[in-house]
Amino acid sequence: MSLFLFVSTALIWATGAFATTLQAGIVPIPVSVGYRMLLMTVAMLAVIFVTRTPLRVRRTDVPWLVVHATTFFALNFICFYNATTYIPSGVATLALSTSPIFATIIGFLVLRETVRPRAILGMVIGIGGLGLIVAPDLADLSDGSTLLFGMLWALGASFGTAVGTVIGARNQRAGVPPFATNFWGALGGAGIGFGLALAGGLPIVIDWSLRYIGSLLYLGIAASCVAFLMFFSLVTRIGPGRAAYIFTVVPVIALLISTVLEGVELTAIIVGGTAMILTGNVLVLKR
Question: Of 270, 191, 265, 261, nearest to 21 (Cα)?
């Protein structure tokens, strides 16, 4: 069962990265993220109703939930959606997979968690791998580097994911039920997405094409609610440390999908950079 949960979650998240590219069109990115989070909110509400999970949280936990919603359920997705407008989803997912590196640094600064020498080595190797992929494109900055711009957006998503991961760990230690965390996070993410759209004068519109609606349903229900539930079930079964290794598998699958559906060429630089990033993640995650 654990193997099934691991593989299924990795496949859903990897294919979800490609589904994000199908959201591009007439709907502004913050609005698309708002729709996705609204769908996740409804789905999580159904789960909470069945499991009878309490939604009430302590007043002292509210600020942490706000930060969690802002980073993990809004900033993360808005940045990733923007990244896929510049670079293939597999490459964006590769940059996103550096989140364990950022999470280690943030965990040290915020929660005073110990950073082992092995993790420091992993951070150096992982960042070096990302630099290897971006380096050839730096010479084209004067002409506008789509790879670099896309990577910067993806790193923004990685940072948001890392902050959200650390805050999520803090909330779990404080006794906030994971289902309640996801519900309030998704609801907050929806509000932030729509709020940013209104503040920026962007239209709240919907694309009724099969491509947009189909990908939205997949992202809002399968890639968000279902995948999170399966991941938390996996964490319960094998522990958070071993479950976190899923983040070293997702970018590989996403990159393979991009080679088939987005025409990504697996050059020696991309393969080498990928190997370095994943090696860095393994060293960072290893306890």
Answer: 261
- Please state, in angstroms and rounded to a whole number, the distance separating the CA atoms of residues 268 and 271: 5
12-40 pLDDT, tens per residue?
A: 988 999 999 999 889 999 999 999 999 99
Residue 173 burial by Cβ neighbours in a 10 Å radius (0-12, 13-18, 19+): exposed
pTM confidence score = 0.87
Q: Is 148 exposed, middle or buried (0-12, 13-18, 19+ CB in 10 A)?
A: middle
51-106 per-position pLDDT tens digit: 888 888 899 999 999 999 999 899 999 999 999 998 888 888 888 888 877 777 87
**Residue-wise DSSP of 124-177:** HHHHHHHHHHHGGGGGGGGG--HHHHHHHHHHHHHHHHHHHHHHHHHHHHTT--
93 is written with which tokens?
A: 């997912």
